[in-house]
Amino acid sequence: MHIHALIILASLIGINSATPTQEEEYHESLTLRPLRDGKVATHFAFTTLIRGAVPRAPHSLADDDVSQHYTLFPLALGQILREYAITELHLNLNAGQWDYDRWGQPGEPAVGSGAELWVWMGDGAPTSVDARWKGTQNALAGLFCTSLGGMDAQRTTSPTRAFPPAGNLPRLSAPHTHRLRHASLPAESVCTENLTPFLKLLPCPVQAGVAALLNPHRLFDADWHGLGIDVRWIAGKGVELRMTVQAVFDPVRMSSEGKRDWTLRSLFGRVIPRACPVASSSRITVDLPADGGFVLLPDPSEIYPTSVAFNLARGMEELDISMHWSQEVRFSYPLDLTSTPISAISVDRTLKGASQTHGDLALVLRNNLHTPQRVLYLETLPWYIELYLHTLSVECGHSRPYELFGNLTYTPPVPHGSPTLLQAELILPPHERVRVAARFRKSFLRYTEHPPDAQRGWDLPPAVLVPEQGARARVYTRAVLVDLATPDFSMPYNVIIMTCTLAALVFGFVFNMLTRKFVVVYVGEKKEGDARALERVERSPSKEM
Amino acid sequence: MSAGRWTLLYIVAARLLLALSLIGESLKEDHQLASPLNAYPRLREGTYLFNHGISPYSGGTFRHSPLFLPFFSWLPDSPYLNASLWTLVDCISAWALVSIWNARSGGVRSRGVLLASMYLINPYLFLPSLATSTASFDNALLLLAIKFACERRTPPCLFSLAFASQLSLPSILLLPPILLLLLSDAKSHLASPKSFSTSYSAVAPVVLEFFAYFATLTGAATIATGGWSWAANTWGAGLILPDLTPNPGLWWYFFTEMFDHFRPFFLMVFSMHLLIYVAPVCIKFQHDPLYATFILVGLIAMFKPYPTLADAGLFLTMFTLFPETYRYLRYPIVTALLHLHAFLLLPLFHHLWVGAGTGNANFFYASSLVFGVANGGAILDAIWAGLRIAVGEVGEDYAVMQE
Amino acid sequence: MRFLFYLPLSLIFSLFSLLALTACAADLEAFQRASARARIGQFFDRNAVGASSESKHTNNWAVLVCSSRYWFNYRHMSNTLGMYRTVKRLGIPDSNIILMLADDAACNPRNRFPGCVYADAGRHLDLYGENIEVDYRGYEVTVENLLRVLTGRVEPSVPRSKRLLSDDRSNIFVYMTGHGGNEFLKFQDNEEMSTFDVADAFEQMWQKKRYNEMFFMVDTCQAKSMYSKLYSPNILATGSSQVGENSYSYENDMDVGVAVIDGFTHFTLEFMENINKTSATNMQEFANKIRSHADVRSDLFHRPLDRTLITDFFGGVAHAEVIESPITTSVTTVSVESIAPEELGLREPVADLLINVSAAADDVEDHYAHFGGKQQDGWAIVAGLVGYVVMRERRQ
C-alpha cells in the first residue's frame, strides 16, 4: 500500500512538473509612518501576481471553466473571480473617518467608512451583469463574513468617471463592453470575523512575515482601521491581487506616560518571528518624521533621505522595530494641525436643517496648493434623499462663479428603486474655499423599508473627490447620518382598520341615501285608531326615477 | 362701480399683496398645500432637468404633467411673477364660478360678488395658491369646464376637461356629469326631479370629441417628452403610490403601514372605490347634473390618491352655488366645526411630527382622519339635502326619512 | 524426444502460470486496496469523536442565533459566542456552524475592549478570540433568514458558509437567545418568530431529510413555550425557563458596563467546560445538572437520554473518504488584447467647463436616445388643438 501511495504521489509530481505552471509571485510590505499628532499610520500590502493569467472571458461562462491551479493565489477568491468572470474587483472594509488634514493622503486611497465594493465586468455572458454583481456580493459576503448582500439595486451605481479601471480591461468582441458596478454600505462594521478570513487568504498568515503582526485585538483598537482587496489585470503581466490593511495607532493613548514612542510590540502586541519563506520580497519601511530627535532601532538595511527600510530575509531572527524620542518627557500636541493641513484638498460635507422633510447638503472644499486644482466630484445619494438640482449653488468667497462647476452628469433617483448619481467637475482656485450647496427633500418610507433601529437614522455614503491631475487618488468625505421621519411601527392593523372604516362609512351612507326612498312620517300625537302612526305621502319623489 | 365690485377689487389687491410679500415661500412644500403631483419646487426641478436634456421622468421627483413643461420652461423663476400668475388663475376660477352661478340662476339673483369672494378668501384655496401649488390650475380648468358646460359650449368645455384630466387623472371621472350638463341645462331642478331625456345618439359624438382632445393632448405629451415614461410618473403615481409623502388624504398612511403582500390588492380596491360612485350619483341626480358634478367633486377630493386642501376647498366653495339646499342640511355646524378642527390640527400635528419631533406619525394621521370625517360629513349632508329638497316642506307633525 | 514433448507443455504451463500470476497480482492489489481502505476507515473511526455513540449520524451542525440588537443586550451576544466556542472546541468546524449575531458587540464603539466579548465578571476568557466566522450579522439576522437557513430555501447565489448543508445523517444543535415571551422570540426588537414557525420549520426539515437528530436549546423568558409546539420526531429540547417565568442575567462586569451572560447559559457552559471530545457524558447527566425549571423535553426523541451522549450534538464527527481518481490539472494560456484607457472615454479632459448637465452615460443611453428631439412637435400639437377649439367656438 505504501508503495502504491508513493507511485501515485510520484506520478502526481510528474504531471505537475510536466505541465507549464503559471508563475506566481508574492510580495509583502509594511510601511510605518509617524504622524504629526503623535499617531502612527501603518500600511500592510500583500501582493500576489499570477504571471500571464487573464480574467475569464464573460462568454465562456456558458461552458465549464478550465481548471485552475493556484499555489500562492487564494483559491477561495480565485473561484469567485472565475465563477462570475470578474475583470477587476475592489472591496474595502473600513471603520472610522480618515483625517486628511492631519494624516495626509493614505497609502491606499479607499478609506471611505463602511464597506465599499466596485467591480468591472464584461457583458455578453449568459447571465446578466446585474445577476453576476449580485452573485459576487453574496460570494464575497460569505467569504469575508460581511453583509454585502445589502448592496441591492437601491445602492448600486455606475460612476464610471470616478472609478475608472485600476488595471487594464481585456478587449471583448463587439458589441460587448465592460460595465462598472459600485455600491457602499457606510454603516457596515468591521471586526475580527472579517480579519479571520482575510488572513486565511494569505500564504503566510500569523506565523511568519509581516502578516504575523496582524493582531485583531490591537488592530480593532486603532483610531482608524481598514481592510482592502484589489484584484486587477495588467496587460502583459497578469492578474494581480493586492490585499491591504491600514491602521492608525495612537501610541500616546496607549502609553501610560503620554509619550509617542512606539515599538512593533507596543503597537501590535507581537513581533515578527521569522520571514515568510514564499515571499519574493518582504520589507518594512519606516518614514522618518520631519522633526528629528528620535532613535530608531535596530539598524535598517537601507537608508533613504526620508525613510529607512528593513528587508526580511530567510534565516532572520525575531524582529522588533522601535522608535523613541529620548529627549521628550511627554508628547505635546502641535496646535496648528488644522490650520496647516498636509493634504492637497481639505473637504467637509455636512447636512443642515432640523426638519424631517427637507435639508441642505453642503460641501466645503479648500485647495491647499498654490495652483488651481480640477477635481471630479461624485455624490451618490440613496433614493430617499432627492436632490433639487435646480438649487445647486457654488460659492467662492462672496461671488457665485458658476464657471467653477460643470460637466455634470446626473441620474435622478427612482423611488424604491435606484439611487441618485451626480458627477461633476470643479475647479478650485488656489487657497480658496469653494462651497457647493443644494437643497434636498427627504422621502417617506414604507414601514417595512425601515431597518430595525430606524430611529438611529440612515448613513449616507461618503462623497468622493478625484483630483484630475497627479496620482488621481480619491478623497472620501465623511459619511453623514440623516434622520428620516418614521411612521408608527406598532399599529399597522389599527391604521388599516380605521381608514377602511371611514371609507366604508362614507360608502355605506352614500349608497343608503341613493338607493332608499324618501317618505314622510307622522311623528306628532297619535291619531285615534292608527296605532302605527305611519303615513306615506304621495309626494315621495323617488318613484319617478 | 358698485360697492360689490370694489369689495372684490380689495380682496384681489389684498391677495396680491400677500402673495407678493413672499409669505408663501415657506409654504411651498407644505404637505397640506402641495402634494408630490403639484408642488412647485418639483415643477422647477422638472423644468431644470428638461432644459438640460435629462428626461425629468427618469426619476421620481417630477410628477407633473408634461403640459406644464413648455410654459414653465419659458417662464422665469421669479416669486413675484408667480404671485401674480397664481392670483390671476384664482381670479379666472372665481370668474368661472360666477358664470356658473349666472347660468344656473338665469341671472335672476345677483350673488356674484359673494361667490367670487367665497372662492378668493377660502383658506383652503388661498393657501395652496400662496404656496404656488399647481392645484390652483387644476381647479381653474375644472371650473372652466363646468362653466362652459353650463353655457353649453361643447368644444371649450371638453377641451378644458381633457386638459384638467391630463393634469390630474381623477378629474376624468367628472366626464359623465359634465356630459349630462352639456346635454341638459344648469338650472336647478333639485326641487322637481324629472328623468333625463336626451337621445343617446347625441351623447356619442360628444364623448368621441372629448376622447379626441384627450388623445391629442396625450399624444402631444408623448411626442414632446419622447416616450411614455411620463405616464407612469404622473398617472401611474396615482395608481401605485410610489411617493408616500404625507397629505390630508386617506391613502398615504394606509399604504405606509400596509403589509407588502397586500399592497397591490388594496391599491386596486382604493382605485376602484373612486370609480364606484360615478354611475350611481349621475343616475340619482340626473335631473340636476350640476349637483351631480358637485357631489363627485367632493368625493374625488376625499378619496383621490394625492389630495391637497385645494381639492376640498373647491368642493366647499361650490356649496355656495346651491343656496336652495341650505335649509335642508342636517348638521352644518358639526361639519363646519370638524373642518375648523382639522384645519387647526393638520399643520400643528404635522409640525409636531416632522418639525419639532415631539409627536409621532399617528398625530398627523389622526388629524387627517378628522379632515376625512369632515369632508365625508359635508358630502353626506349635501347628498341628503339635494334629495330631501324634492320632498319639500312638511307639516310640523311630520318628519322626512328614508324607507 | 521427451524434451520435445515437454517443451510445448512447459511453454503452455509457463504461459498459464504467468496468467495465473498476473491474476493473483491483480487480486492481491484489490485485496491490498480494500484492506487499506479498511485501515484508513479504522484509523479515522478510532480517533473519531463520539466513537462509543449509538447515534447514526455522520456529521454535526450547529445553528447559533442571537436575535437581540443594541449594546445593552451584550449578554445575548456572549451567550451565543459561549456556545460557539464550546461547539468549536468540541470539534464542529466553522464550516458547519451557522452563527447569527444581530449586533456587533466586539467592535462596538461602546466596548472598552475592542475585539473582545467576555462572558464572566472577571473577563477571564475572550470568546471572540482571533479566529471567528460570523455568518449572518446585523440586519441580516431576521426571522426570514433563519427560516431559510433551517429549511434550505435560499437563493442560488448564497454561499456555502451561509447555508445549512445538512442531510438525514446530520445531528443539529440549534441554540437561540434573545428577548421572548409566551410562544415567541423577538428579533431585533422589530419582528417575532413564533413557536409555530419553529415547529413548522423543523417539520419541513424532517420531511426534507435535513436532520437525523436535533437538540434545540432556547435561552429566553418563557423559553419552554418556544418548544412546546414542536411535533417532528427526533428532537430533544430544553430551555431556560417555564411558561410564565422570566430568564435572568447572571452577572455584570463593571468595566464592560452591562450584564455579560444569562444564568441558564452560564450554567450550561460551566457544565460543558468539563466535557472534551471523547467524553462519555450523557444527556441525562446534563438534564440533571442544569439549573432550569424547564426540563428537557424528550417525548419526540427515540433514544433514552442516558444513552445519548452530549457529544452527539456538541461534538463533531469526522469522516474521511478515500477517492482513487487522481486529480489532474492543466493550464491553458490565452492571449488577450487590452483596451487602451483613452478608448474608454473616461479620462478625457474637458475643454469647456460651463454648466453642461447631461444624463449619466452608462446603461441609460437607450432611455435618453430620443429625448428632447421632438419637443416642438408636441407643443405645436397642443397649440393647434387650442386653435381648433377656439375656431369651433367662433363658428358656433
If you had to describe this structure to a student in words, what would you say it looks like?
The complex is a heterotrimer of chains A (545), B (403) and C (396). Helices cover 17% and strands 32% of the residues of chain A. Chain A has helices at 2-18, 75-83, 100-103, 129-144, 192-200, 216-219, 251-254, 264-268, 492-515, and strands spanning 24-34, 40-51, 86-95, 114-122, 178-185, 224-234, 238-249, 262-263, 281-287, 295-297, 302-303, 307-311, 322-324, 345-352, 358-367, 373-381, 385-396, 405-411, 420-428, 433-442, 458-460, 464-467, 475-476, 480-482, 518-522. Chain A has a 10-stranded mixed sheet with strand order 5-4-3-6-7-2-1-9-12-11, with helices on one face. A 5-stranded antiparallel sheet of chain A has the order 18-19-16-22-23, with no helix packed on it. In chain A, strands 14-15-20-17 form a 4-stranded antiparallel sheet, with no helix packed on it. With 545 residues, chain A is α+β, with helices and mostly antiparallel strands. The termini of chain A are far apart. In chain A, helix 2 (75-83) packs antiparallel against helix 4 (129-144). Chain B is mainly α and 403 residues long. Chain B has one domain (3-231, 246-402). In chain B, 65% of the residues lie in helices and 1% in strands. Chain B has 18 helices and 1 strand. Chain B has helices at residues 3-20, 40-51, 68-74, 79-105, 112-121, 123-130, 135-150, 154-167, 175-183, 203-225, 229-240, 251-256, 263-275, 278-284, 289-303, 309-318, 332-356, 361-388, and one strand spanning 398-402. Chain B starts with a helix and ends with a strand. Chain C has 396 residues and is an alpha/beta fold. Chain C has 2 domains: 59-314, Rossmann fold; 337-395, no CATH class. In chain C, 34% of the residues lie in helices and 14% in strands. Chain C contains 10 helices and 12 strands. Chain C has helices spanning 2-47, 74-89, 143-151, 195-207, 263-273, 283-289, 311-314, 341-344, 365-368, 375-395; strands at residues 59-66, 97-101, 136-137, 170-177, 180-181, 184-187, 191-194, 213-219, 235-239, 249-252, 259-262, 357-359. Chain C has a 6-stranded parallel sheet with strand order 3-2-1-4-8-9, sandwiched between helices. In chain C, strand 1 (59-66), helix 2 and strand 2 form a beta-alpha-beta unit. The longest helix of chain C has 46 residues, at 2-47. Chain C is extended. Chain C starts with a helix and ends with a helix. Residues 347-373 of chain C have low confidence and may be disordered. Chains in contact: A-B, A-C, B-C. Chains A and B meet through strand 17, helix 9 and strand 25 of A and helix 2, helix 12, helix 14, helix 15 and helix 17 of B. Strand 18 of chain A pairs parallel with strand 12 of chain C. Chain C: This is Peptidase C13 family-domain-containing protein. Chain C: It comes from Vararia minispora EC-137.
